[in-house]
Specification:
Number of strands: 17
Structural class: alpha+beta
Mean pLDDT: 94
Oligomer: single chain
Shape: elongated
Strand order of the largest sheet: 7-8-9-10-12
Distance between the termini: 46 Å
Amino acid sequence: MAITVKGFPPGPAEDALNAAVSNLDGFYGSQIGIVSASFHGIVTDIAHAVSEMMSHLAIIDEASPGAPFTIAATTDIMGAIAPSRLDELRQTIEFNVAAGDYLVAIRLREVAGGKEVLTVNSIRPDAKTFSGLFFLTTVLPGGFSLGVHRPNTNCQKFVLVNYALTNIPKISLEVCARAVCEGGKCVGCLLTSATGDVGVFADLKVSPEPKDGKPVDGTIAGNCCVVTVSYVWVTGFKSIKVVEVAGKQTFEIEGHFGRSDSGFRSVEECCGVSG
């Protein structure tokens, strides 16, 4: 059973945190439990708040997709991550925190091993802005798409994962299929767009990917145009390496501390169909 946050002034931040704790428990709870989540004060000195967040880091780690979830803490991260990436993290945390924000202390526990980690993050009273490694990198499945249809063109924006704290998209992928229609028949098929939208400390790679305004051929299936792209996403300190194999792009996941996944998305546009 999910806990409720303690000590927060009533308002949007408290509501967002309670919803996030419940959602986190539902997805991660069998492996990563939230022991407590409590009000830790109001930010008055930004530099001090950033230092406290940097001293109490936590990130949910997944060695490979489907592997058990573990928690990496400050000592794990500082000994393995390049100083340039840690500087980037500090700058990102500082950019997203402001005087008047609420500090949040969350204690996490690995169910299997019992390891406990205290992490400090921040949230704006209106819940629209947040900071800290745990809040910026923890994600939940997206699983829905938003469509935009134009004549002979179908664009679908697939939300791959959401920020756990606010449930807004963190990584999304838009794929557009254009059918070339003549006399109501599909005579051509083009992938006109395959673009990603990612938040901080995340990356997304797709293939094939139209470049310089040049579409990529899709597949004519009956009277329809079908385009399919593969994707890989990462969060946290992981990265994606692009490898050319036999003239085709493949992706390799590198690094530690974060999550990753891969898959395919297809979009269809048919000729002779109104609406």
